[in-house]
Amino acid sequence: MAYDAQEVETRWQKAWAKAGAFEVEVDHSKPKFYCLEMFPYPSGSMHMGHVRNYSIGDAMARFHRLMGSNVLYPMGYDSFGMPAENAAKKEGGHPHTVTHRNIASIRADQERMGYSYDWRRFLATSDVDYYHWNQEMFLMLNERGLVERRMAPVNWCVDCDTVLANEQVKNNRCWRCGLEVVQRDMEQWFVRMTEYSDELLDEIDNIAFPENVKAMQRNWIGRSHGAHIDFSVAGSDAVIGAFTTRPDTIFGVTFVTLSPEHPLCEELCTGSEWEADWRELRDECLRMSEFERINMLKEKKGVFLGRHAINPLNGEEVPIYAGNFVVASYGTGAVMAVPGHDQRDYDFAERYGIEIRRVLIEREGDDPTAPLSTAFEGYGPMVNSGIGDFDGLAGEVAKDTVISALEATRAGHGTVEYRLKDWLLSRQRFWGTPIPMIHCGTCGVVPVPSSELPVELPLDVTFSEEQSGNPLAAHDAFVNTPCPSCGEDAKRETDTMDTFYDSSWYFMRFCDANNNSAPFSREAVDYWMDGGVDLYIGGIEHAVMHLLYARFFTKATRDAGMNKVGEPFGTLVCQGMLNAPAPFCADCNAEYHVDNFDADCPTCGKSLGTRSVKMGKSLGNTVSPEEMIGRYGADTVRLFMLFGANPEVGMDWSDSAVEANHRQMHSIIDAIESALAMDNSPGPMDEWLNARLRANQRAWHQAMSNVSLREGVMISHFEILADWNWYRRRGGCDQATAKAFLQQWVPMLAPATPHIAEEFWQRMGGEGLLATHILPEPSDSSEDTSILAREAYLRNIIASGRNLRELAERHTEGEISRIVIQTTAPWKLELARDALRLHSEGFDFKTGGQAYVQSLEIFENETLRGEIFQTWMALTTGSKKKRGRVHSWAVAERTLISSGLDETAVIEANSAFIAAELGVSSLETYPAGEGEDVAGKAGLAFPLEPGIAFL
RNA sequence: GCAGAGGUACCCGAGUUGGUCAAAGGGGCCGGACUUAAGCUCCGGUGCUUAGUGCUUCGCAGGUUCAAAUCCUGCCCUCUGCACCA
After folding, report:
1. Is the pLDDT of residue A609 over 70?
2. What is d(CA A832, CA A829) in angstroms, rounded to the nearest whole number?
3. N or C: which end of chain A has fewer CB within 10 A?
4. Domain limits at A355?
5. Does residue A524 fall inside a structural domain?
6. Nucleotide nearest to A816 (CA to C1')
7. A237 and A284, same structural domain?
8. Is the CB of A660 under 7 A from strand B?
């Protein structure tokens, strides 16, 4: 057929839309399946990374529809954020305009790919219909005490003109623009996510995320158990509180270090000879960001503060230092230093000549007085404790005992610390959800009453490149408002929300997207979200940000009674990178822009090779989806995406592979057309085709259920086609068989290539739209094993015949023209059947095998005795190199032998085919011993392995 | 350093409850059929060897076993995340 992908695909896309094929409602009579791709930011047109993401999701959505599930598969856009604002500035417009233009563009691209979204649930977070509910939920969080406004040192990006959450800072650089962030103290809005730290951490064990994502989240939350210990200062009322994860090393404390900004520093050293040194160190530290303090510090420096702290357990006085490596924001900003068992403290102690004391040994019996040449940071029995019964305790027991001792003297207690911090929500930008709060001179900060929501972003703002700061702050009509509490003039909050807030609950909004009286109804969300989103697909880059916020949010709304589940996502699939070749210099280990193909390395001048790297604008190694769809059609692109690699692994773009997949499409089309044009002549291959189809259906079903899409597509688009071709080659040509075959096969093509599947569904007279068709459970037939085994037997003969032919040619003078196949001697088959029967009964061949074979009647035959014995051994115990056949035969082969397969009959029935395949003009076959032993092959003949001679 | 995932034939990639594994499938390459020819399509080949045998292979080195791609130990390398975290 002339395959006009453009025409076929757009025609069916219209038909699906017209029929509302993908529109779903709550229906308790069916199992539900919620398939979701991570919320896209509409940055213009769709790129290949999107194509991969959605092709995976759509295949799964379509598969589950075929399986009879009620599939929720929505699409919307995470459309607030900086890029639109920057674009608006550039063109002197409004981000709203930019955003809607981009949404229209990406949506058109998605529609052209034929993704089966329920477009009625479409939403954009920058539309007031959506962010209204952001605000409503913010009031809910506020009422539940989860919102806090406080002064805090924040990460500020000068370029983006706004603060960033901790998660948005990577290597001290802004995640968006890459500029280094600076520290600023500002009044900010926080969501108290840390209230849920423990649940967020503990629940990780029970969710089906990939291990790497789980590990990242655990790391990020970073719970550590330890102790808070109070060191009082000698000659003062001051107390230094320190957090440690190693209370078992308390007797090794030989100094205490404060962060230079610690308020006690000044108090302790003012007026002393050490004050000047401390001030210098503090000022130096203030000039550094926290990141530099933690990661870039080359030199550990400290100054003595002139005072001593008292170890609460043994009363010992140790010097107090200020150290540049102690960070104020972690723990208490004070460290109890144990140089014997902490490498950093060891280095510091060595430099300043402080005592290094061993209070742990590595294993029992070690010398407690052995000097340390490096810190021993592991766990081991306590030694040299000086007081109490601590010596000998190790690990958790040691920690607990020390903590109990501290608690008894009220000098400390066990604690838990987290790395996770509260979610810094406010952004000093325009294009985000306005925080619904009002600042009143009299009443302070007052929430906007729910009845007055939404607080809408003004549309009468013109953006330009000159302006800096947040245009909202300069918009009088927005800012000025009466206080909802006292009615006096007041001012609106002009900070907007981090866009991660928008994406933290959108999956629940999709359940009830058009609700205009609440964020979502409990009924809808409990139906669709039961067990979480069943399949959530997206990039690994959201492992700690979006996925953690969304988990938190779901728990917060659950506790507010809005939904039942506490974990939003069931199975999470993180799709791998999409790579494409780029010029690469092995010496410099650097990739360059595609313009440098065939050029020399711009850095070292050597000639460039290529390497597969992530597709991206910066290297220019991108491929345009539009262009590929235009050239090959959406189905080919989808097939390539699914067949190229399994979802979670990286994948290389390859032009030749895309072309190969396009050829595959043609082959499938040709095959189906041939199936539609069959004669009405039933034959022996019909049952084989059915049996193969059933086997493939079962394997396909399993692969698809496991999101092993590559494997699934391999079956639906490659294996089944190969079977069909074999059927035809073997003379299969039955209309009824072909029709039933297509009835099953064509639907299997739909998840990956829905348009061509729908086209053929119609042409073969399928009922209704394939898009809404339900495929029955894969069936089974007890006959299948032996049907398939017979054909496999035949193929085996042809395969070994081919191998042998090559060898035979070398040993034969003249042309090879005929073949003689001697099948197994009947007595060998009988022995094989006996052996199999005994094997299935658990017979021990090693002890009883010989006696058994000798007891057989046939063993009386003296001339055969030797061969009988050899055959028996080959069947049962095998040799050193080869196991007995009873062990190595597959189930199918055992079935054939046990049923007493007449090999000669099978070969005779197919002699013309075999002869043609092996390129000989005549074929003769008989059981060994019943004819001439041509070329001495009779002895080789074995059940399922006939002796083959070419002549 | 810690944690997670990996290392399979020219490339990609299955296979890891030990035996049916010289190891699926695809790409590429080689050969054949078809064709005036190229392309398409179909068929076959693609570790070495051999009238169906034998040999050497699944990061490296050992070990367990009658039997290891698969299990154990050590090592090397790649990717990802965290990191002078108290």
Report:
1. no
2. 5
3. N
4. 224-417
5. no
6. B51
7. yes
8. yes
Shared domain for A793 and A773, answered yes or no, is no
Nucleotides of B strand lying within 7 Å of any protein CB atom: 3-5, 12-14, 19-20, 24-28, 40-45, 50-52, 54-55, 66, 80-86
- Measured CA to CA, the distance from residue A165 to residue A427 in angstroms comes to 9
Would you list the DSSP string of A228-274? Answer: EEEEEETTSS-EEEEEES-GGGGGG--EEEE-TT-HHHHHHHTTSTT
Q: Is the pLDDT of residue A366 over 80?
A: no
Give me the interface pTM, i.e. the ipTM.
0.88
A488 vs A490: CA distance, rounded Å: 6
Helix, strand and coil in chain A, % to nearest 5: 45, 15, 40
Answer for the pair A780, A694: CB distance below 8 angstroms, yes or no.
yes
- The per-residue pLDDT for A299 is 65
The pLDDT > 70 percentage for chain A reads 95
Q: Which residue has better confidence, A27 or A708?
A: A27
Beta bridge partners of A821: A925, A948
Q: Residue A554: is its pLDDT beyond 60? A: yes
How many domains in chain A? 4
Res A184 pLDDT > 80: no
* Statement: the CB of A880 is under 7 Å from strand B: yes
Closest CA to A225 of A390, A407, A396: A396
Domain-ending residue, one of A781, A806, A823: A781
A611-655 pLDDT, tens digit each: 667 777 777 777 888 888 888 899 998 998 888 878 887 777 777
Q: Are A764 and A908 spatial neighbours (Cβ–Cβ below 8 Å)?
A: no
pLDDT at A587 over 70: no
Q: Which of residues 273-332 of A touch strand B (CB under 7 A)?
A: 294-295, 297-300, 325-327, 330-331
- The answer to whether strand B lies under 7 Å from the CB of residue A654 is yes
What is the predicted pLDDT for the residue at A866?
Answer: 81
Give chain A residues 336-355 with Cβ within 7 A of strand B: 336, 342-344, 347
Regarding whether A264 and A403 lie in a shared domain, the answer is: yes
